[in-house]
Design the sequence.
C-alpha cells in the first residue's frame, strides 16, 4: 500500500476500542471471515465505522481487516464482536484445512471447462 | 631763648597729650579684645552646635545603613520570589530626594540586578540538568513503546492484550510528562514525525491522557487536511496539555468538546470544558504563559511545577502557533483555541493515506467520494485480488466505474475487499443465503480458474524443489 505509514503511529491502538481488549464473544479467530452489511448507521464510534467502511459490504478475514485498519488483531476482534452484537456484521468461522477443496479436482474441473470452451 | 618754665610747661603739655593718646589707645584695644572674646565665644558655641549636628547625622547615617542592611535588602531579596512583599523605605523619609537617598537606592538596584543574574544562571543550570535527564527517560519510553506495540501485534490473547493496552496507555502518560518537562527546559520535542493528518495529531494528543474517554472530537475539516512534519508533535503536545487542563478542571461526568474548524488564516482547534472556569487573574496568568513571551524560570512554576502552560508557551513561540484562553466557554468553563496557521498546514490524499481508524471522520459530506480513485472494480475474478487490475473485465463491464490507481512499482498487492453486492440488490434480498452470485461468462470463469491453477502449480513446484511431498 502506497500510503503505509513508516514512522511511529500517532494514535495508539487502545484508543480504537476505548481501552478494551476483551471481545464480547470469543468466537472470532484470525481467519474468521467478517461480512459487512450495506447499512452504515450514523453515530458509530470512529473505529467501528472505519471497520464497516473497510468491509464495504464485502467480506474480509479478521487479520486482513486488521492490516487494512493498521490495528492489532486483538482490537479488531473487539470492534468486530461489537458490530456483530449490533447486527451490522456477520462472521463465519474460518474454513478448516480439511475442508479445503482438493486442488487436483479443481484442476480437472478447470481443464474440463477449457475443453468445453474450445 | 627759651625759658625753663616754658620748657617745663611745654613738656608737661606734651606729656598730657601723650597720656591722653596712650590712654585712648589702651581703651580702644581693651574694647577690641572684649569684642574678640565675644566672637570667640560665639564661634565656640557654634562649633559645639555643629559638632553635635555632625554627631547626629553620623548616627542617622549609621542607622540608615543598618536599616538598609537589616531590613531593606532582605525585603528586596524576598520580593524577587514573592512580589507581594513590601520593601520598606529609608528610615528618614526626608532623605528621599538627596544624594544619600539615591545612593542607597542604587545599592538596592545593584543587589536586584546581581540577584536576577544569579537566578537566571542557577535556573539555566537546573534546566540543563533536567533536559539531559528527561531526554534519556523519553528515549527509553519510546523504546518501551516499540516493544509494547510489537507485542500487541503479535499476541491475540484477550487478557494479555488488555494488559498490553493498559501498559501502553501508562507509557503514553509517562512519555507525555517527560516530554513536557523536556520542552519546558528548552529541549526540542524529541520526536520527528512525518506529515500527518491534523485530526491524527489531535487524537494522538487525546490518547495521552487519563480521561480520554471524556473527550469528544468533532472534525469539521475537509478530509486530507494535514500538518507539515515539524508541526505534528508540537500540535499533539499542545492539544494534550490543553485537554489535560480541561479534564482536570471539570467534573468527571462532563465531556470535553474539541472542534476542528477551518478558519481564514488556518485551522482552529477549539477545546471547551464545562468546568469551573478561571478567575480573571488566573486567566491573565494563563494567557501570559501560553503566549510564551517571557522567559521561563523553573523556580516560578510553583511546587509541584505547573509545566503544562509553560510548555505550551515554549511551543507556540518556537513553532509560530497561537493559543488563546481569553474567552469563556459557552459551557461555563474555559475555552482554549489553538490556531494553526496556513504555513503549517499541508494536504495528504485521504484515499491513498487515510487517517488512523480511531480518528473521528469528517462531518463534511463526502462529496468527492464518488471520484475517489479507489480500486472499485466489481469483478468476481481471482485476478482482482492481485495488484494488477483486471483490465479486460473492467473494460467489458462498462457499467461499472473504474478509476484504477496508478500501478505502483514497489507496492505490495493488497486485497481491498471482496465484491460489493449492490450490483444485484434485488437478488440479494431474495436470496440471503447466496446474495453475491452473478452469472459468470465462461471467459471470467476460465480466467479465475486458470489463475487458481497457475497459483497452485507455482506453489507445488516451489514445494517440490524443497523436496517435500505436496500431499
Sequence:
Amino acid at each position: 500500500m502506497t500510503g503505509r505509514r513508516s514512522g511511529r503511529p500517532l494514535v495508539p491502538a487502545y484508543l480504537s476500542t476505548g481501552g478494551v481488549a476483551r471481545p464480547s464473544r470469543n468466537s472470532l479467530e484470525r481467519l474468521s471471515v467478517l461480512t459487512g452489511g450495506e447499512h452504515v448507521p450514523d453515530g458509530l464510534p470512529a473505529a467501528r465505522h472505519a471497520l464497516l467502511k473497510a468491509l464495504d459490504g464485502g467480506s474480509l478475514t479478521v487479520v486482513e481487516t486488521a492490516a487494512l485498519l493498521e490495528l492489532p488483531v486483538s482490537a479488531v476482534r473487539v470492534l468486530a464482536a461489537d458490530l456483530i452484537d449490533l447486527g451490522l456484521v456477520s462472521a463465519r468461522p474460518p474454513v478448516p484445512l480439511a475442508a479445503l477443496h482438493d486442488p487436483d479436482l479443481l484442476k480437472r474441473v478447470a481443464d474440463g471447462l477449457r475443453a468445453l470452451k474450445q | 631763648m627759651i625759658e625753663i618754665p616754658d620748657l617745663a610747661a611745654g613738656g608737661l603739655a606734651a606729656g598730657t597729650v601723650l597720656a591722653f593718646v596712650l590712654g585712648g589707645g589702651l581703651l580702644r584695644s581693651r574694647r577690641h579684645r572684649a569684642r574678640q572674646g565675644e566672637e570667640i565665644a560665639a564661634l565656640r558655641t557654634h562649633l559645639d552646635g555643629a559638632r553635635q549636628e555632625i554627631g547626629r547625622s553620623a548616627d542617622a547615617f549609621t542607622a540608615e545603613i543598618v536599616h538598609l542592611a537589616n531590613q531593606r535588602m532582605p525585603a528586596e531579596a524576598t520580593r524577587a520570589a514573592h512580589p507581594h512583599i513590601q520593601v520598606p523605605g529609608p528610615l528618614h523619609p526626608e532623605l528621599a530626594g538627596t544624594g544619600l537617598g539615591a545612593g542607597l537606592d542604587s545599592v538596592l538596584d545593584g543587589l536586584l540586578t546581581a540577584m536576577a543574574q544569579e537566578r537566571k544562571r542557577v535556573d539555566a543550570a537546573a534546566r540543563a540538568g533536567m533536559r539531559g535527564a528527561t531526554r534519556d527517560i523519553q528515549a527509553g519510553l519510546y523504546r518501551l513503546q516499540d516493544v509494547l506495540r510489537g507485542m500487541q501485534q503479535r499476541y491475540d490473547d484477550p487478557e494479555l492484550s488488555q494488559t498490553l493496552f493498559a501498559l501502553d496507555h501508562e507509557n503514553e502518560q509517562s512519555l507525555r510528562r517527560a516530554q513536557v518537562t523536556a520542552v519546558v527546559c528548552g529541549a526540542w520535542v524529541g520526536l520527528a514525525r512525518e506529515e500527518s493528518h491534523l485530526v491524527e495529531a489531535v487524537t494522538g494528543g487525546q490518547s495521552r491522557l487519563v480521561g480520554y474517554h471524556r473527550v469528544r472530537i468533532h472534525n469539521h475539516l475537509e478530509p486530507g487536511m494535514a500538518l507539515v512534519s515539524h508541526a505534528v508533535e508540537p500540535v499533539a503536545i499542545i492539544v494534550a496539555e490543553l485537554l489535560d487542563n480541561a479534564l482536570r478542571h471539570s467534573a468527571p461526568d462532563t465531556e470535553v468538546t474539541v472542534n476542528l474548524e477551518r478558519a481564514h488564516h488556518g485551522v482552529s482547534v477549539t477545546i471547551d470544558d464545562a468546568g469551573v472556569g478561571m478567575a480573571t487573574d488566573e486567566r491573565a496568568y494563563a494567557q501570559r504563559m501560553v503566549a510564551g513571551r517571557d522567559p521561563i524560570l523553573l523556580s516560578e512554576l510553583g511546587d509541584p511545577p505547573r509545566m503544562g502552560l509553560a510548555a505550551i508557551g515554549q511551543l507556540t513561540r518556537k513553532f509560530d502557533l497561537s493559543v488563546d484562553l481569553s474567552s469563556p466557554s459557552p459551557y461555563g468553563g474555559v475555552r482554549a483555541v489553538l490556531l494553526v496557521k496556513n504555513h503549517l498546514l499541508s494536504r495528504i490524499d485521504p484515499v491513498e493515506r487515510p487517517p488512523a481508524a480511531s480518528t473521528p471522520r469528517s462531518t463534511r459530506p463526502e462529496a468527492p467520494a464518488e471520484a475517489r480513485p479507489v480500486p472499485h472494480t466489481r469483478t468476481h475474478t481471482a485476478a482482482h485480488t492481485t495488484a494488477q487490475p483486471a483490465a479486460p473485465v473492467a473494460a467489458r463491464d462498462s457499467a461499472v466505474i473504474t478509476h484504477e490507481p496508478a500501478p505502483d512499482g514497489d507496492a505490495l498487492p493488497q486485497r481491498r475487499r471482496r465484491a460489493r453486492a449492490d450490483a444485484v440488490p434485488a437478488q440479494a434480498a431474495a436470496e440471503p443465503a447466496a446474495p453475491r452470485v452473478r452469472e459468470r461468462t465462461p471467459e471470467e470463469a476460465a480466467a479465475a480458474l486458470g489463475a487458481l491453477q497457475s497459483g497452485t502449480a507455482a506453489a507445488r513446484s516451489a514445494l517440490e524443489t524443497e523436496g517435500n511431498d505436496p500431499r
